[in-house]
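Preliminary data (for renewal application), S-adenosylmethionine complex.
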Amino acid sequence: MELWYTEKQTPSLGITCLIRETLCRKQTKYQDLAIIDTLQFGKMLVLDGMVQTTEKDEFVYHEMLAHIAMQAHPHPRHVLVVGGGDGGVIREVLKYDTVETATLVEIDGEVIAAAKEYLPQISVGLDDPRVTVLVADGVEHVKTSVGKYDIILIDSTEPVGPAVGLFSEEFYRNIYRALKKDGLMVAQTESPFFNQDLISGVYSRLNRVFPLTKLYLASVPTYPSGLWSFTAASKCYDPLECRKKPVTTKYYNFDVHQGAFALPNFVRELLKEQTK
Ligand code: SAM
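Predicted structure:
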């Protein structure tokens, strides 16, 4: 008998994967956590029924969330990742020798434990001596961090449950204060096909807080619609600027850095009325 896992990406659309087995399933304090072994994408982390990351396509998302900012900033030393309990973004950040500290603030410790046990290629960086792992609410953490970070990367779930606060203007104002005077941030901002109001809203909120806000795209097969957005906001450096620091990657490269900011017309429309 075949066993299929289906994520309902919208009320009328889903992605379904043939699975070998369920490796882990638990109700944590915050969410339903599962690690399943799929034939197409390998092991997959699923939270509240939504694909978070898979062995086969995680490199796209983690590289594109990390390297645009890491290449735009001339010398990132102190980096904060909010969410990202699977460790994939931390792994990418650690590829730069300038990084002295990388702090992960993940609200659900069970996600970290499951990633360490079942997704070692993704969570590999969590044991690096430069890494501090805090099991805490990212909303609270940035409130108490002033002028600490060169780069802040927000690798959150979609705006439900504990992640709602990670999309608010108050959070972005606290991010601004937590960044150093030349800092920049990037947030994952969902699908341009299915989350247009969210993308417009985040863009306008960041535009009110930061002098420079830019959106870029990447294709992530297992995310809803396969097209994903990231919103960068900066105190001074242009996120489009790539300093061509050598780095080993599978998706990101210096041409992809530039191309990611070339937006299709329907995405430009989402931002038009928000642009200063
Ligand atoms: N790449 C995925 C995506 O784009 O949906 C996100 C992956 S990562 C596993 C998302 C993490 O954000 C989850 O582990 C979740 O527990 C965490 N998270 C949600 N709200 C949070 C908060 N307020 N503070 C810290 N972590 C939070």
